[in-house]
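Lecture 7 notes: from sequence to structure.
We start with the chain below.
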Amino acid sequence: MAATATTKPSALSSSLSNPSPLPRTHKSPPSFSPKTLPKPTFPLKTSSVSRTPKPSSFTLRSKNPISDVLSAANQNPDDHSIDYVDDEKPREECGVVGIYGDPEASRLCYLALHALQHRGQEGAGIVCVQDDVLQSITGVGLVSEVFNQTKLDQLPGDLAIGHVRYSTAGSSMLKNVQPFVAGYRFGSVGVAHNGNLVNYRSLRARLEDNGSIFNTSSDTEVVLHLIAISKHRPFLLRIVDACEQIQGAYSMVFVTKDKLVAVRDPHGFRPLVMGRRSNGSVVFASETCALDLIEATYEREVFPGEIIVVDKEGVQSLCLMSHPQPKQCIFEHIYFALPNSVVFGRSVYESRRAFGEILATEAPVDCDVVIAVPDSGVVAALGYAAKAGVAFQQGLIRSHYVGRTFIEPSQKIRDFGVKLKLSPVRAVLEGKRVVVVDDSIVRGTTSSKIVRLLKEAGAKEVHMRIASPPIIGSCYYGVDTPSSEELISNRMSVEEIREFIGSDSLAFLPIGKLEKMLGSQSPNFCYACFSGKYPVEPREIKVKRVGDSLDDGLVGSFENIDGGWVQANHSPEEEKDKEFEGVVI
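Predicted C-alpha cells for the same chain:
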C-alpha cells in the first residue's frame, strides 16, 4: 500500500495563525428567529499546539454513539424514472460547512449549504451536537427538499457540520449521503468530506483484511476507520494519524461532542475557508459565498496541510505534515465556484473576466454580438465583449425551473435535454455573426447541440470561444470527469473538434496565457486535466464508464452517475484486489 510520509507536524508560525483579514461586504441579513443571539462564553484566541497535547483535554466520550442516520421525507428507492442532468460538464463533488459556538448552528448550516448547492445536488445532511450527543439528518435531493422547519427543530445545539454532495466514490444512495457519524472506543465522531482519496481501494482492502466492516461505498468511511483504529488517545492525533495514511484531495470538517476540526490536504486541492460571525462563532466552508449568506466575515483559508481545532479553549492551529508546493484546482476558477466567491485568495469573478479578455486578444473574430452559455460562461463572455468592443447580449436563456424528471413525447424531440435547459433568443441571433463563450468542452456533445440550436434560431455564423484550455485528462481529486477516452480534446485536434460541433471557428484559452495571468501564483495550481501530469499519482482511479451519457450531454440517470473503477499504474500485488472494480477499461 502506498502511503504518505509520516513527517511529524510542527506548529504553524504566528504569521500563519494571525493573517490580515480580507475585507468583505455583506448583503442584507438572512432571516432567523427574532431572538437576539447571545454572546459566546468561550475565548477564541488563535494559538499553536504541539504534537503532544494534554490527553485530558482531548478525552472523548458520548452518551449515545450514532451509527445510523435519519432519512428525510420523499425518499423512494424504487423510483426508476429518467433523470436529466448536465453530464457534459465536470462536476464538483461536495461542499462542506462547520459552525462552532452559535445557538442556531443547524439553521446557519442549512443556509450555508444552500449557498453551496451548486457544489452538489444529489444529497445533503447536517449533524448537530446537543448534550454531548451527535444527532444527524440526511437525505437525497436538494437542501430545500431534505430540510424543513420540523427537521431543523430536531437539530438543536451550538455545534454543527453539514454537507452537500455529488458522488465520486460511492453510489448515490441514502447511506452514502454525508456527514457520516460513527461511534468508536472513546466517543462519537461526525465527518463531512470534499475531495477524493486516490488510495482508497488499497486502504479499504487492508482495513477489511484486519476485520473492519464497511456500511457504505464512500471513500470517506475509510477515514473514520483509520481514526477508530489509531493507537493515539487524543482525537487530534487520531486525525493526524489517519491523514498521514490517506493520499489525494480532502477538505474535511469533523465534529465530536465538544470540538469542531477542519483539515485540508497537503496539496490544498480543494478549497476551505474560515470566518467568524459577529457573536464570535467560528465558521468553516468550502467557499466564501457561504460565509456571506450567514453574515460571517472571511478571515483566511485553511492552509494546505493544516488542521484547526475549535473548542472551549479557543482556536488552535497545527501543521498536519510537511507539505509540498500547493496544487489548488484551477477549475474552481474556471467553472465550479460561484463568481461572488474568493477562492485560493483570488476573486473568481475577476479570474473569469480575465479569461474572456485573453480569448478576445488571442482569438479575435469579426462578430456582431457576444453571448454566453449560461450560467458559467457569462463572466468570461462579459470580459470577451468588453475587450473586443462588441455588445454582450443574452442570446441563450437558461431555465432555472427544470426538475430532475421529464417524460419525453413518444415522437422524439431532437436535442431534448438541451432544449429543456437552454432557449435561444431569435431577436438577438437572427442574421448575426455570433461569438458564444463557454467555460469548457468535455465530450463535445452538448456543444454541438448548442451550435445547432443557435443556427436554427437564425445565427449567420457561430464562433465558439472556450474559457479554459483543452481537457485531456480525468481528475482524480474530487471532480466527476469522464475517462480520458471520452474527453474529446484527448482524441481530436482543435480543428477536428470544430468540425464535430459544427461551429465556424473554435478557440480555447491558451494554457501559457492562463499561467501568465496567474502570475507568481501559477505554480500553486493543479493543471492535471490540461496536461495529464498528476501531483499525486493515481493508483486506483474512479471515473465514469465509457458510454455513460445517454442521448445528449444533459441526460443520465442516478445509476450512471457513479461509474466504475478504472485501473491505472497498478503493481502486480494490487491485482488481487479486483473485487472492488466495477469496470476495467
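Points to note: The mean pLDDT is 79. The domain at 91-324 is CATH 3.60.20.10 (Glutamine Phosphoribosylpyrophosphate, subunit 1, domain 1).
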